[in-house]
Design brief:
Strand content: under 5%
Shape: globular
Order of helices and strands: HHHHHHHHHHHHHHHHHH
Amino acid sequence: MAVWQRMLHPDLYKQTDFSIFYTAGRIADTGRYDLIYDIETQRVTRQEFLGITLETTQLLPFNHPPLFVPILQIITDSNYLASYWRWVAVLIIFLMATMVVLNKLLQVEKLKAGPRWLFILTSVLFYPLFVNFFRGQDSVVVLLGVMIWIYGLITGKDALSGAGLALTILRPQIALMLAFPFLFKRQKIWWWFCGVASLFAVYSLLLVGPNGVRDFFTMISISARGQGYEINQQAMLNFTGLFLRLFPQVNLDILHIITWGLFCAALAGLAIWWKYSSEIGYRQIVLAVTVSLFVAPHLHYHDLTLLIVPCLGVGLAAIRTYRLKVGDVAGLLTLISSSLMISFLWVPIQNILPYLWMAFMVWVVWHWSYVTS
């Protein structure tokens, strides 16, 4: 009932994540793109549509790259709930594009139409994806980038693969984790990633100007510190969130040193593995995406949408080596999705289950010796 109340009553729904995108769209509509990341401008704008007085530290900030701000400017107006549904329509277009790429990948694996549609249906019904849409988040765009990366990687289209990775810069820490190892194997993917990402950076600079870029990096530093501004690190489903729930009294400065140390260690480990692997295939994909989710310094529940990727990677590798049938893999994806949904009934399970599934997929991909690596 609470979910439907939020979806039908805009005053309740204004507290969800879409509010940060709405804030960016409303600021852009004034013509002041350079103020999109200005904390005070965000506070005043958010205060106006919430109809309450906010302290600066109560601000839930818009800290995403500005790639889609022009779209937000078009779809947002004074009607908050209508703006939300227009944004959902945009996200559905990205989801449809993602499924088109997935279908092409499944065709490469020579799956017939029936099994392909079963894979696509179970992917669309993946629970964290529903959370992404409900909250109005943009993790589905990152999923599209990752799916393009995989398709290009498997089919040998390095330019396409690198361009797909560039789209994941909406989550810079995940983009870096997935892209950097290609500096040591199949370097064309790395350089295409750098080239397209640079074009996005130039576009962003032209959009928000030098002051906007400066304010953007201020926002990034706020997110990295994880203190105040409704960032809520303890609710994250990464190493940082797990550690904070286990040791709530830990010094945050020390925790951030550990977090970034783990991130760098994982980055180095993947780079070494890439360098000495005979080829880069589903095994590496599963490990890279799963590890990137766990060690990413900033990760909330909607970002678990990317768990679709290791699920599919394990499944496709298992089908290739005749370990599992299509129905088994679809059943696994459904089981993971259902368990994540049911876990919301009990917070302790909700906070630990994603880690168990991450560990399971890492164990499976490490335990199985795929012929395709």
